[in-house]
Amino acid sequence: MKLYFEKAAGKEIFGEHQRIAIRASDKLWKELIDIGLYITHPRDISNGIQRVKDFA
Question: Alpha-carbon distance 18 to 42, whole Å?
């Protein structure tokens, strides 16, 4: 979503409030990383992170 709001078709969708959407995307990404770290052993989620980035 961050890429969508920063560089893709959604980059002007919220006008002057665009930064809110970008910050929300950043916060969601951090929360997803935290969840991934919590539920995996041995806390290495680098492969999953790379797969998400490749997909995006």
Answer: 37
**For the segment 25-52, what is each residue's pLDDT rounded down to a tens digit?**
999 999 999 999 999 888 899 999 999 8
Question: Is there a contact between 56 and 6 (Cβ–Cβ < 8 Å)?
Answer: no
* Distance between CA atoms of residues 49 and 1, nearest Å: 14
Give the chain as a 3 state SS string.
Answer: CHHHHHCCCCCCCCHHHHHHHHHHHHHHHHHHHHHHHHHCCCCCCHHHHHHHHHHC
d(CA 42, CA 24): 28
Q: Answer whether 23's CB lies under 8 Å from 39's CB.
A: no
